Amino acid sequence: MNFLSLFVLIPLLMLFGLWLAKEQKGIRTVMVVGSSALLALAIALTLKFISDRSGGATAEMLYTASFVWFEPLHISYSVGVDGISVAMLLLSGVIVFTGTFVSWDMCKEYFLWFTLLSMGVFGFFISVDMFMMFMFYEIALIPMYLLIGVWGSGHKEYSAMKLTLMLMGASAFLMLGIFGIFYGAGGQTMNVVDIANHTGGAHIIDFSKQCIWFPFTFIGFGVLGAMFPFHTWSPDGHASAPTAVSMLHAGVLMKLGGYGCFRIAIYLLPEAANELSWIFLILTATGVVYGALSACVQTDLKYLNAYSSVSHCGMVLFAILMLTTTASTGAILQMLSHGLMTALFFAIIGMIYHRAHTRDIRQLNGLMRIVPFLSVGFAIAGLANLGLPGLSGFVAEMTIFVGSFENADTFHRILTIMATTSIVVAAVYILRMIGKILYGVNQNPEHAKIHDAHWEERFAVICLICCIAGIGMAPGWLSELISHSVAPVIDNVKTVGHLISQSNPFM
Amino acid sequence: MEYTILILLLPFLSFLFLGLAGKWLSHRTSGLIGTTVLAAITILSYCTAYTYFTADRCADGSYATLVPYNATWLPLGHLNFDLGILLDPISVMMLIVITTVSFMVHIYSFGYMKGERGFQRYYAFLSLFTMSMLGLVVATNIFQMYLFWELVGVSSYLLIGFYYTLPAAVAASKKAFIVTRFADLGFLIGILIFGYYTGSFSFDFVNNLQMAEGTTPFIPCGIDKAIAAGGFILPTALTLMFIGGAGKSAMFPLHIWLPDAMEGPTPVSALIHAATMVVAGVYQVARLFPLWVTYAQDWMPIIIWVGVFTAFYAASVACAQSDIKRVLAFSTISQIAFMMVALGVCTEITTGHEHAGSIGYMASMFHLFTHAMFKACLFLGAGCIIHAVHSNEMVAMGGLRKYLPITHATFLISCLAISGIPFFSGFSSKDEIITACMAYSPAVGYIMTAIAAMTAFYMFRLYYGIFWGTENKELHTEHTPHEETIMTAPLVILSIITVGVGIYTTLAGFGLFEGYSFGSLISADGQDYRIHFDPSVASLSTIIAICSIALATYIFKGETQPVADRMYNAAPRLHRWAYKRFYMDEVYQFITHRIIFAYVSRPIAWFDRHVIDGFFNFLAWGTHTLSNNIKGFQSGRVQQYALVFLIGILVLILMIL
Amino acid sequence: MAQTIIFLILAAIILGCGIMAVTTKRIMRAATYLMFVLFGTAGLYFLMGYTFLGSVQVMVYAGGVVVLYIFALMLTGRQDKKNPTVSLAKKFAALVASLCGAGLFLFAIITHQFAENILTPPSEQTTPVSLLGEQLLSSDKFGYLLPFEIVSILLLACIVGSLIIARKH
Amino acid sequence: MDRLNDILNIVLGIHVDISWFLILSALMMFIGIYGFLTRRNTLAILISVELMLNAADINFAAFNRLLFPNGQEGYIFTLFSIAISAAETAIAIAVMINIYRNLKNNFVGNLDKLKW
User: Fold this and answer.
1) Which of A258-272, B60-74, B150-164, B556-570 has the lowest mean pLDDT?
2) In angstroms, what CA-CA distances link B422 with B375, B417, B418, B430, B498?
3) How many CB atoms within 10 Å of residue C142?
4) Which of A435, B185, D46, D98 could crosslink B170 through cysteines, CB 3.0-4.6 Å?
5) Cβ-contact A268, A327 below 8 angstroms
């Protein structure tokens, strides 16, 4: 048994443990032990991966293992990681760990779904079989419905339904795309690496077929990555979700979209990616600016952050579509950075909401004096969001912009410049929010009585801040780790697309 | 030179320590920690400067550019994002300026911020700012400069918003950050263009750096590659970067944040918004100057005319302001514009007395240096005044010379310096700027001379308004204004520097003795360049300055000010426009709130909620309605089912037959 | 020849009474017509020489089932609502569907070439009851013991079931 | 008389074969179906069902008698069918009586709760 399977096994054990656990104390113990184990495993994996890479392990995927699961369709339980998945696993480990502390007072059933969701996420990142990826994707998706629908707030049923339906619709697209790729490559293997390298019975997918299936897979994953105009589930979903679920959702689940776009759509359909990227580039660049601008006038903190997520996640897909190694590295960094900072943001918004019973920017005031810890955390999250150097957002955005600029034609240039404007707009909405809710003097006597964070909340917030600052201050190793794994994918695209296609009317 | 890294590390550690542990420290301890650290880095900077300038010059007569540290922080494809330390004459000079002023401000803040809530936070932010500013000036590459540039911006934001319970301070901090952010967008795009075409971000334009052992080598800057790709590329990149610089240095029309930034504590205004951060734009242009002058000389008039207009605009607004910090803010804008103009008119890089075209660079840096000192002194003096009378308005002051003698003296010295009176430091530097302008074009020269006259006028208007005129008795009844030693000591030090530099350079400039002067250390090509005043320019500007001061004395010195009132009555609208800063803020307000928010953001948000989301809700509604309609088939009536069943069977049979 | 005449008479009775049974307004009459149809069917069995079957038909159906109907009708006799009239359109649709179906079936039957087997007069060999009894209770290859038992269990279950369903709560 | 004899010979000389039974049962079947579709009283519907069942029984018997005279399958099936229809009737009538108790009528139109 490959040790990567522990990422799925530990959540399973946690589920079992939760089932047995009787009281709140037992549940907490199981969750803390389990999520710490996952985090420790992720860290250990990262260290091992780095040392193995520097030790000369050059295979595209390390620690691979494969067990045939369903012979007729060539589905197998295949695991393996490269730098990107290692980074994502690390992110998921951190978010699940902190999410546990944020949802300290929740009940057993909540944690059951929460753990199942984590299992889906971890499973997705360790899989290299398209079908397994799809399956874990669905496993991660379904608990979301219950978590929002049962433990959410506001229009929770509506939001949960909307989120689930839109994502399910996307997975219908995705499934078509996956089977299109499977049969297009000869119907012999579901293994991503095999299909990409034309080994294991896979052959090159016809160009015309690629062009059919690329939109399916890209939109399928793009919806989860909040691609404009399929992003509307995100504001409602985030606004209604309980705190830790927002964290997990924005922090990790949305990353499944970007990861999937990169790992399946770009990697397996390189020619189509070259051919059709312009359509999606326009959409994502629009989404980047659009999300930022609509965040400017939101009055609900969670909506604001959700729109800012639309903008930042749009940046991820935008960077992926730029099809350069640097930009794609930036995209992965942005996923990490966005995952951490949005998680922090949602965590703190949730804590404020829990205390003040409102998320309306107009009703909150002068929190800095009342809840200094939360306010400082909030300000740090905000500053990371607007790309302050020393925090993670800056690193990711700069990598993306430099990478996007490697495309020398006017079309890409214009879109890049469009995307850069979002950092100004980000400053506008973040500072507006900080100025309104943290600064000033509190007017509401109800709010004057609220207390600052508990120890477990402080712990979660500090963990996230440390990660954000860690990436922001020492991004080199992470960037190295990622770019080595991104390079083969992009090289694949570059070799087949010797020149960017003539069909683009803008070039 | 290995210890230079400490110059960056110490304030950073101090920031972290004070920021994290400040809650448990007393005001005194945290202040002492901050100040001690700053004293240490000030000493280190002076050591660095001493070592650097006393070292031997290179073969070509310039000081070597040292890179004691450089390491790749973030690899970006073919490019590298390095962090390191680069020492050349201007960065060493900036180290001195920043650490000196910052040190003075640290000491001063002991008195000024005494008992304020958030004292520890204040010192933490000061440390952060100092670190970022130092990192900016010692940047080895343009991207490092951008990184610290942003950090400087955010520390400025935090410090302006220090009194975060006051709405005005919050609005001002927001405005400062957003306006400079907007300008930085230009900077960023410029960097991206520059980096893409030259293949490097480094400042290594001519490849004559002395790298220390163990540092990562730069990717050489391929200027020729950029030239080959198109002649307009470098100028475009430089102009875009200049937009960033203009934003930080408050050039028109991006100046609007600076007057509002005066909502921050006064020592902060002295440090950030007078002496150091706002000159970052000038420093950036100076840093890229070799490129400007070689590859983008045709585009340099942009710098000149932006500078000239800003100088004039700010000076005219300063004449009508009543808030003393606002006056100083506009005077800062005007003076920085002087530095910009000086850089713009520098058309040659070769020095030597016959090449007057190269004075500008040196003059600009010199003015940066002198201005930092006397403007910090002015601001700190204003701080003393505000501390004493608890108001920013000139109306509340008057006749303070009796109560604040030291402040009065230092303020006067600084006013004389900024007005360009001989034997004060401002004279030498401003005179060089005007000489450079004259050499470029007499028109610019005369305009700048006129603006210098306006400077003298509004500074003395301020001076008389504060220290002379009618005493505001009812304000003084509760407590007599007084000054504290800890606050006046920095003033004295700064004015000593002002006077000392002034006397030395004036004497040297008139050729009264042969010594090193500022130009020996810093000049466009690094050669030893002795300053010699052009007698005509020097006398003209001195006379004009004295006349302005006399005019200001005539108008504003008395207890009553009939002339001023008459002037005001003669052109009330002009005064009102100038007082309202020619409504620039309102224009911005209109654009952002009325146009961008109301006509872009709100419609987009509406569009999102109603059109895009509406589409998906419509899909859901459509599905719902459809199923509602077809659920009629499931009527529960057995006979209906049977009929449908029968028809189905018949059709099937028909198909089989 | 006599068989033909008898068949035609029986067919006329069956169809005529059948039509009456489904069209008459009064439910009691419908039950009576049904009884005639059942008798007609029994007649057909006799015509074919399946005398035992015919008697079973008469006993079980005409004797048992129809009596059950009549009891049920009497028990549910007072309907508190008027018998809702069926809309003409529905009737028409049902008629058309039935006629089409019948046409289709008749077409299939007439066009199909069946083996030339005409109905011969029944003889002693035509399915003696003893043979039937043996076959029903044998467990050999063509034995029907299992279905027989199952049917008996079914009947038992029905008895129990109908008791339970119909009992008063 | 001769002409009448001829006609009788022509008409009655036709022997009954399998298709006669099939046609009869088909007609009976569709009469039953028509009744099933148009009657509103559940008992009347049940009567129609009996018609259809009888039509099927006739087929069983006729197939056995005319096509496979050596076997007893059709015969026995008819027996079973009668037994089952008796059982069905018993249950159905029990159900109807129950319905009647609850609704005070027996109209099929009222029984549409089993939907959606």
Assistant:
1) B556-570
2) 17, 8, 11, 10, 11
3) 11
4) A435
5) no
Helix (H) or strand (E) holding B79: strand B79-87
Is there a domain that residue A483 lies in?
yes
Comparing CB atoms, the residue among D30, D84, D109 nearest residue C102 is D30
pLDDT of amino acid A498: 47
- Supply the DSSP string of A317-347, one letter for each residue: HHHHHT--HHHHHHHHHHHHHHHHHHHHHHH
Smallest CA-to-CA distance from B89 within B40, B113, B54, B130 is with B54
Is the confidence at residue A405, as pLDDT, over 60?
yes
C-beta atoms surrounding B215 within 10 Å: 17
Q: Do D111 and B635 touch (CB under 8 A)?
A: no
> Structurally, how many domains does chain A consist of?
1
Coil, strand or helix at A204: coil
The residues, any chain, with a CB within 8 Å of residue C2's CB and separated by 6 or more, are none
- Per residue in B489-539, pLDDT (tens digit) is 888 888 888 888 888 877 777 766 666 677 777 777 777 777 777 777 788
Residues of chain C within CATH 1.20.120.1200 domain(s) are: 1-76
Q: Are A162 and B615 spatial neighbours (Cβ–Cβ below 8 Å)?
A: no
pLDDT band at D29 (very low <50, low <70, confident <90, very high): very high
**C-alpha to C-alpha distances, A435 to B161, B166, B596, nearest whole angstrom:** 9, 10, 19
C-alpha of B218 from chain center: 28
Sort out which chain B residues have CB atoms less than 8 A from D114's CB and list them: 636
Say how far apart CA A89 and CA A136 lie, in whole Å: 14
Domain extents in chain B: 1-295, 301-579, 585-656
| Contact assessment for residue B423 and residue B506, using Cβ atoms and an 8 Å cutoff | yes
Q: Is residue B484 classed as helix, strand or coil in its secondary structure?
A: coil
* Range of the structural domain that residue A259 is part of: 3-335+392-420+475-496
> Coil, strand or helix: which one is B451?
helix
> For residue B645, what is the nearest residue in chain C, using CA coordinates?
C97
User: Taking CB atoms and an 8 Å cutoff, what residues of chain B touch D36?
Assistant: 639, 642
Closest Cα partner for B414 from B506, B497, B297? Answer: B497
The pLDDT of residue D1 is 64
Asked if B467 and B408 touch (Cβ cutoff 8 Å), the reply is yes
Q: Which of B639, B646, B653 to mutate to test the interface with D (most CBs of D within 10 A)?
A: B639
Flag whether A51 is in a domain.
yes
Which residues does residue D17 pair with via DSSP β-bridges, in sequence order? C118
Do chain C and chain D touch with ≥3 beta carbon pairs under 8 Å?
yes
Instruction: Please say whether the beta carbons of B336 and B309 come within 8 A.
Output: no
- CB-count burial class (<10 Å; 0-12, 13-18, 19+) for C15: middle
Is A63 in CB contact (< 8 Å) with chain B? Answer: no
Residue B465: partners with Cβ closer than 8 Å, 6 or more residues away: B324, B394, B397, B398, B556
Fold of C1-76: Four Helix Bundle (Hemerythrin (Met), subunit A) (1.20.120)
CB A47 within 8 A of CB A29: no
Distance set, CA B415 to CA A396, B371, B411, B491, B499 (Å) = 47, 11, 6, 13, 12
The Cα–Cα gap between B246 and B292 comes to 15
Contact residues for B609 (Cβ-Cβ < 8 A; gap 6+): none
Q: Is B512 helix (H, G, I), strand (E, B) or coil?
A: coil
Touch of A by B (3+ CB pairs closer than 8 Å) = yes
CATH top class, domain D18-108? mainly alpha
Task: Write the DSSP symbol of residue A203.
Answer: -
Q: Count of residues for chain D?
A: 116
**Computed over its alpha carbons, how large is the radius of gyration of chain B?**
30
The dihedral through the CA atoms of C52, C53, C54, C60 has a sign that is positive
